[in-house]
Write a structure and sequence with these properties.
0% strand, 93% helix, mainly alpha
């Protein structure tokens, strides 16, 4: 009977230890998840900002190309740059 009580005590201690370990792992997991969620939000915001910047550069590039093309056609229609100054 003493040996079964001792076994029961050891098993109870092991169960308590495992529950504590599981609780510690869960706390660590939740903390890690919280950090990762913040990092993902930051990355998504950064992606949106970079996409907006890219779109702005694209639009500016298109306007510059159009201005260059129209300036090129304007210059072709005149005799020289010197005639533009007078």
């Amino acid at each position: 009977k003493k040996s079964s009580e001792k076994q029961l005590s050891v098993l109870g201690d092991m169960l308590t230890f495992e529950r504590e370990q599981m609780a510690d792992h869960e706390k660590e997991w939740k903390a890690t998840k919280k950090v990762l969620v913040k990092e993902v939000k930051h990355c998504r915001a950064q992606i949106l900002a970079l996409e907006a910047e890219r779109d702005g550069f694209f639009e500016e590039n298109m306007r510059l190309k159009e201005a260059l093309v129209s300036a090129g056609s304007f210059v072709k229609g005149t005799k020289s740059f010197d005639s533009l100054a007078t």
